[in-house]
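User: Here's a protein and a ligand (zinc ion). What would the complex look like?
Assistant: Let me lay out the input and then the predicted complex.
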Amino acid sequence: MLSTFFIRITGQVQGVGFRPFVYQQAEKYQLKGWVNNSLEGVHIQVSGAHEEVDAFIHALKEEKPPVAHIAKFTADPIPYQDFSSFEIVKSNREGTGQLVLTPDLAMCPSCRSELKDPQNRRYRYPFITCNYCGPRYSIIQGLPYDRERTSMAPFPMCPVCQNEYDSPPEWRFFSQTNSCDSCGMSVALYDAAFKLLQTDYEPCIAQVVHTILEGRIVAVKGIGGYLLLCDAGNEAALKLLRERKGRARKPFALMYPSLEAAELDVVLDPVRKNALTGPAAPILLAFKRPDPKFPICADQLAPGLDQLG
Ligand SMILES: [Zn+2]
Ligand SMILES: [Zn+2]
């Protein structure tokens, strides 16, 4: 006996790989119908055998993408509809907004390994993202979440990226922030007088590293604003940054290349480790070790405090 259900899901369900996930589950249980984003969240209609639909609903709740959070889930029987396939259909802007905006997500482990793989076409590509990581909140200009309503809109995908976007079950299937070096997003490096120095990302990054090691300050325009960077082991550079910012004592945040490296300077308990390696990867406070391994100027970074951020 075949039946059709209309499923409505609200919560943090956009920009987290939910539509491609639903598509894959529908394929798995051989269900036909559609999924889309609406102002409310995600809407799905599926037709199939009752047990398969039940298993599909169970999977949606239990195996959802890591960053997704479901606030409300309803599945109502509706008159049977004979769909010919399962599809991700155009977003629907009707209804009232109940969406929980997805925050910007830290680089996921898969993207990190691609970034470091010389054989990968996104080797060292600065804007690497996938369905499970990358900017969301900072680039969203309107809802529902689709590339056309983000600051990615002026950068159409190259044919290779488009193919990834169109082909399940790639983890960039339907990934709204998908891009590569051929898609048109670029990096530029300017000197203090705003003279353009570089536009290729490899030499830009090399020169930024060199500039920081020379004890100078670099402003990096990121997705959510500017980050001011300098060498945490260079007291003169830190003092200069404090002077220029007019920040006599307010602590600065530190960045480490890895969890292992950070652990040499601060004490990280399991809760902190989980947070740092999770999708949010926030700035958090941790107690200084009495004998830091890196030559950081702890007194300049967080004057008078026993914790570092
Ligand atoms: Zn990723
Ligand atoms: Zn591309």
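Summary: The mean pLDDT is 92.
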